[in-house]
Design brief:
2 domains; Immunoglobulin-like; Sulfite Oxidase, Chain A, domain 2; four-stranded antiparallel β-sheet; 271 residues; 26% helix; single chain; alpha+beta; disordered N terminus; 19% strand; 9 strands
Length: 271
């Protein structure tokens, strides 16, 4: 066999090997939908054949911190009717849970489901780790409806309709009037913190520690350092594998942080 023929044979073998080594999800990933009467399991391969599939460009991707292009579907192209849905819950394979008001998907920010093409995998989120695939919720114009960084769930396994967090877990509600700072702080917690943390054992996710049991952050941080930690966790303490994000002013305003701290202080009294 000639040298060129040997080279071609080796090259073909390498291509076949790489195809076989693609992550399992790249070949047979499934997305579970449980929204109202819509109970479906959608295969990645079928979604990539959907007539509404487009290539979109996200200028400031929250997860990759740069401009990204995706093959994607408008989320409403796969959800039949969310007009009577209060909250859409996105569960990720790593335990992250995002509860997002359904009204945001009917607004102007344009939610899309990005789909990782097996033959063109996305970059790893961190060196040696997985990508944001196979399914990732992205927004074309997040600023129009004030979409937060916690409302960009990736590695999505399922989408379901649920009632608000505090109605399912009453133990997270502060014993204060609805117009109080602590009550407003519960809403900040639900939007910004509940994707990873529970309070009093109540919540859908458990990626991070409970924020009230056994100890509340207001009991072991003074307020100055707690505020600093929320803005830039690594400036206070860090460790290998740390995933706690910081909340910039543009994500959590000072007044929202005031409300969140009022909520945490109140919940320290409600263990």
């Amino acid at each position: 066999m000639s040298a060129p023929a040997i080279f071609r044979s080796v090259l073909i073998s390498l291509v076949l090997l790489c195809t076989q080594l693609l992550p399992a999800y790249a070949q047979d990933a499934k997305l579970q939908l449980r929204v109202g009467s819509q109970q479906q399991t959608l295969a990645l391969t079928d979604l990539l054949k959907h007539p509404a599939l487009r290539t979109i460009r996200i200028p400031a991707d929250v997860s990759y911190k740069r401009t990204m292009e995706y093959r994607a579907l408008p989320l409403l192209a796969i959800l039949r009717d969310i007009s009577k849905v209060d909250t859409l819950q996105f569960k990720a394979t790593d335990g992250f849970v995002a509860n997002i008001p359904a009204s945001l998907f009917l607004g102007e920010s344009e939610a899309w489901l990005a789909i990782e093409v097996p033959q063109v995998p996305w970059p790893a989120l961190k060196a040696g780790g997985p990508s944001a695939g196979p399914f990732y919720l992205v927004w074309l114009t997040p600023e129009k409806n004030h979409i937060t960084q916690e409302q960009w769930p990736y590695q999505i396994a399922s989408i379901s309709d649920v009632t608000p967090l505090h109605s399912r877990y009453p133990q997270i509600k502060p014993h204060t009037p609805p117009d109080s700072a602590a009550y407003h702080g519960m809403q900040v917690y639900a939007t910004q913190c509940a994707s990873c943390h529970q309070v009093n054992g109540g919540g859908d996710a458990a990626v991070g520690p409970d924020l009230n049991r056994p100890a509340n952050p207001t009991e072991y941080f003074n307020e100055t350092y707690l505020r600093k930690y929320l803005r830039d966790p690594a400036a206070v303490r860090s460790w290998p594998g740390m995933t706690m994000p910081g909340f910039a002013d543009s994500v959590m305003s000072e007044s929202q942080m005031d409300d969140l701290l009022a909520y945490l202080r109140q919940m320290a009294l409600q263990k």
